[in-house]
User: Fold CDP-diacylglycerol--inositol 3-phosphatidyltransferase from Ecytonucleospora hepatopenaei.
Amino acid sequence: MDDIKTKKIQTRRMKQKEQMVVSTNKMFYIPNIIGYFRIFLLLIGIFLSHKYFILCYFISVSLDFFDGKAARYFNQVSILGGALDMITDRVGTMLLCMKGGMTDVFTLIYIFMDVLAHMMYFLSSAYQRIHHKQGHKNTNILVRIYYNSYVLFTCVLCSELFFIVKYIKKIFNNENILNNITNNNIICNIFYYFLYIITLFKGFINIFHLYMGISLLSEI
Assistant:
């Protein structure tokens, strides 16, 4: 009896989710609303002090790990959601670097390649009407490895942490306490360069994203 009740409850929930998808405009999908809120946080953060900006940025980045789960849970995966996710990630990192005055060569090249590669790759995926995180299945082995859920999570998390740490070091470099912690602590330095290596790997994958995007778009 318990199994029958459980199945009925699961069936009812599935029907409710399906009805929600049918009756809801894609603009107001729950994961898309999360995306709008992420953009709002970044916009507000621009006008705030560095301390509050990094807080807004951190919350926005944290929400990035929930919009995908919401999309799958509510069966609300959409091209719009993918666009919001991809663009907000890129714009967020750009704003972080601009706000922090990070204009070193590595940062500029990384941001340029990250934006260009993801835009090309996303456009090619959107044309095929597939999510950009699902368009890798018949592609380069490195890209397939990158889109493994654990690898992707690690790369995204580490690259975000790398630029957050870099931002903090750049803005608060006059703080003696921060200097003592970051410059004289071996563990902190090892952690920082670990984040740097993962970010380099993510940047390397962008080359494949760019090639795949250009290749697919050239066939249209």
About this structure: Residues 16-23 have pLDDT under 50 and may be disordered. Residues 186-218 form the longest helix (33 residues). The chain has two domains: 1-100, 103-219.
